[in-house]
Amino acid sequence: MDDTVMKHGRMLKRHQGQAMVLSLILMSFALMVVIFSFNASQLNLNSSRLQNTADNTAYSIATIAARDFNFKAYTNRASVANQVAVAQMVGLSSWFNMTDKFAKNACDTLCWVPYLGQVLSGIESAVGAINSVAQPVLEALVYAEDVILQTLAISQQIVHYAGLTSTVITADDIVKANDPKAKLDLMQNPQMLNDVRNVWVNFQKRHSRSNQNQNQNQRSRSQSNTSQFQDFITVSLDSRDSFSKSRSYKLSFPWSFTAFPLRWKTYKAGGSELISNGNNEAETWTSMDTISFHLSKFRCSWSGCRWRGYSEIPLGWGATRSDNRADIERVGNNSSWGSSRNRNGWASRYAGDDQETRGGYNGVQPFYGLANGAESKNQTDNIAVVVSKSQNNIRTSSIVEVGDNNTNPAQSEQMLGDRMTAISAAKVYYSRPYDLMVSSSAWRRSDGRHEYGNLYNPFWQTRLSDTTNTERNVVLALTRML
């Protein structure tokens, strides 16, 4: 067919093909824009997902460390409570022995008195029967408390090493759960391994009696080093209840009265003390209870007029130890056991002579606390985690053969080490719960002082933190080498 038209009397030929070429060019540019947009969205989506995976992994490892710290804080508090329980058991034992001895002495002295003697004899029999039942029960409880203390010490070690060894496995599981195509490459994570080691090995230590002796030797060279084992003993002593700490008082009328020129006083003294038995020797809980009459007379002499001639009449006494390592006759001082030796000297001597052993206590057990270098810190160092994903697992046009390199629009998306890499860091910090402190004063310190991190209160928490330039540079260098 002739492709001509008549215009103004002239024959013109119609032109074809120029519009199609222009359309192809425009379609190519549009396709390039679509591909680049697709690549940018895929890179953005995968980088955000990979960063979230790294954040979750770092946060989870720090959470394991925080739970490890809090578990040790709970068990340390439980150990202190059970130490006090041993003090109570030996205290009750010596108190029952004192009461039994007091009843026997009263009967020996006054049972010849008609009517009164029958009453005192009945009291002596009842007290003796109660004491004979109480002593074996208290001894069994001391044995049980010692088993509990050893169990708490062992549980700390189990949790410690379980947390240390499970962090890498747990971190890898968290990475897979967040992104199955991402991986935790140990070649990129020497910092993570070192950070985990610092948290579990350097930031905290297992303190024991042998460590105390080492610290004492170090203190001769550096006074800044303190014995946390001795601190634990001090905490246990400070945590004693009023019965265990001191059960000393003066009895009121008719046990104490004044009939001038005579004055009659009756003192009850007693308490429980944790006795150290020397280097590498386990400690012993001891207890003493005494009661005595004290008679004095108001007299005048060349030096003046005052109450003179204090004479003690021991009425009852008792002493108990949790094991046979300490001899109550030879340990302690005038302020020990509620100042019993100072108030009732003769009764205290008799108590030492008649001391009994109840239980098989094995001393203060080793426990985990912060290392000496971390005593004034409220947080750990960073725990840095690196997570990566192979470029082949990122759905961009680079994984499709679209032609020569010059025509591949994904050529500019080549990644360092042929992988996408994300780094995140988290740390464990110590802080009382401020939200609860606002609503209740029970969560605040009663003295209002600043509280440094410790393994006695379970207030360790987790937060993400900024990575340092050093951490980022190390990851960059390692990724280039891969």
Largest sheet: 6 strands, mixed
N-to-C SSE string, H for helix and E for strand:
EEHHEHEHHHEEEEEHHEEEEHEH
Regions with pLDDT < 50 over 5+ consecutive residues?
219-226, 406-411
Overall number of strands: 14
Q: Which whole number gives the mean pLDDT?
A: 86
Can you walk through the features of this model?
With 482 residues, this protein is an alpha+beta fold. It is built from 10 helices and 14 strands. The protein has helices at 18-110, 116-178, 190-202, 209-219, 228-238, 242-245, 336-343, 345-353, 434-439, 469-481, and strands at residues 4-7, 10-13, 182-183, 204-207, 249-250, 257-259, 262-275, 284-301, 304-321, 356-357, 367-370, 383-390, 419-430, 460-465. Strands 5, 6, 7, 8, 9 and 10 form a 6-stranded mixed β-sheet that branches. A hairpin with an 8-residue loop joins strand 7 and strand 8 (284-301). Helix 1 crosses helix 5 (228-238), helix 2 (116-178) runs antiparallel to helix 3 and helix 7 packs across helix 8. The radius of gyration is 40 Å and the shape is rod-shaped. The model is unreliable at 219-226 and 406-411 (pLDDT under 50).
